[in-house]
Amino acid sequence: MSSVLGSCPARAALWCAGGLLVVGVNIGMVVVGLRLWNGEPYPAADPDRVATRLKEETRRVYDEAALPKAPDAPARVATNACYYRGLKSIAHIDRSLRDVHGFELSWQVTDIPEAVARSAQERTRLRLAGSGWELTSENISDRGFRFEQRETGDKVDVNWYRSTGTFAVSIYAPCGKVSEGFDEYNWPGARWTPA
Q: Per residue in 63-78, is it b (16+ CB within 10 Å) or e — as a string?
């Protein structure tokens, strides 16, 4: 009888350790399940900083293009819809998140001759490639390309369309979670005007 009682504390410790292991595994499964359900969280994004970055890149492309005309219309940083990630996206198909935005700054100039457009594109292509940007696609338009910067996820599209002679540039920043109160329609940092 004494041998049975003497082994009880050891047995209790095993039961306790086993119970803790089960609890730990269950918590781990819940965390993994939530990650699978929600997907990878979006990083935080400061709209003003993103706009500044996009406008700086736009200025570089505009300056090196050296086109004979100004853009056809004023440009501004616009927001793009971003969607749920993970398995939750299946339950929210085509429903965008209110506090997560992608950003884009686009401008275009029409009636640009092909030779002028090609020279402008080549200057931008050489600078981006030499600055560590990666070419991700070509021939988006009659003559166009896209580069991506791995550090920020920003993308630069430079296109030319033969039918209208339109030289078009779009600079994109990936989706990010913005702070509460961000008003995309009343955002002074969004405006861009070429000098």
A: ebbeeeeebeeebbbe
